[in-house]
Design brief:
Largest sheet: 8 strands, parallel
Oligomer: single chain
Number of helices: 13
Number of strands: 8
Low-confidence stretches: none
Helix content: 40-55%
Order of helices and strands: HHHHEHEHEHEHEHEHEHEHH
Structural class: alpha/beta
Bound molecules: dihydroflavine-adenine dinucleotide
Strand content: 5-15%
CATH class: Alpha Beta
CATH topology: TIM Barrel
Amino acid sequence: MLRRVLLSLSRSDRVRHLVETAPVSRGVVARFVAGTGPREAVAASRRLVDSGRLVSLDRLGEDTVERSQADETRDAYLTLLKLLAEDGLTGGAEISVKLSAVGQALPGDGEKLALDNAFAICEAARDAGTTVTLDMEDHSTTDSTLGILADLRRDFPGTGAVVQAYLRRTEADCRDLATEGSRVRLCKGAYKEPASVAFQGKAEVDLSYVRCLKTLMAGPGYPMVATHDPRLVAITAELVRRNQREQGSYEYQMLYGIRPNEQRRLAASGERMRVYVPYGDEWYGYLVRRMAERPANLVFFLRSLATKG
Ligand code: FDA
């Protein structure tokens, strides 16, 4: 119930304005967001890479309503890639891109614009020696995003896909995507979705996650296991043994600021452990989705509102 209310709030402009202008301490946002500009994001990446972790950087922003915003997002990624290359970080840091931020939802030729912008980002990433993963958003965008992924993979085969275990379709998508070299990030899914397309209960979502994970782990692709769930991390280790997978033929992924000790533990045990690092001004939707996942995050946020406000 709380999750559904919060996910509705993540789309509310009024609440967004209230929260963004509330005297929230920078520390609250800073726990989950690496900073507002690319230099802060690169500095956070440097710290993570130096600690043995890998990074995927996401410039926050998903409500692109004008072409100029889409182009601005593309240019911001190009700048970010340049800074990462200058800092020698592209071996350990890749990029995550939301297609909605580069124009996918614009009326008319939005999909074409998103493809063109994503193409430019993938090209710059390849030249810098790294890769791009296309984040997955609400279910109305899944077909479009997988279509754009297929187009991009013709020129940039390393482009990563994201699939969401809460969607009923995802098991079939995993079968399609479990091909040689295919980088696939499996997550539970973070949007408010109707029962017609998505499992609603945690147990059902977790079971779907395990089915998808089994498919990806048994295939010839490169699974990216994106979860903080200790049970799913343990199941992954078991599937690694069962499928005789080498360390480095898959990776774990977690969000910036969430279970950092577990991130360090996995990295220290020789696993590839990638941290998803969001940065930018438009942190509201991202932060509210994190609160919807875990009431403790909400309590932390409200407490600091109460003490600083
Ligand atoms: P869940 O939220 O069910 O938590 C399971 C367990 O993990 C908890 O019971 C607890 O034990 C532990 N845990 C979780 N949070 C914790 C915390 N703060 N502190 C301590 N323990 C904690 N979604 C999407 O729709 N599209 C996308 O493109 C992406 N991309 C993405 C990338 C990466 C790298 C990650 C890790 C996640 C995403 N997501 C995403 C978000 C994802 O769909 C999901 O909403 C969150 O990862 C939360 O789900 P969990 O798998 O962690 O399980």
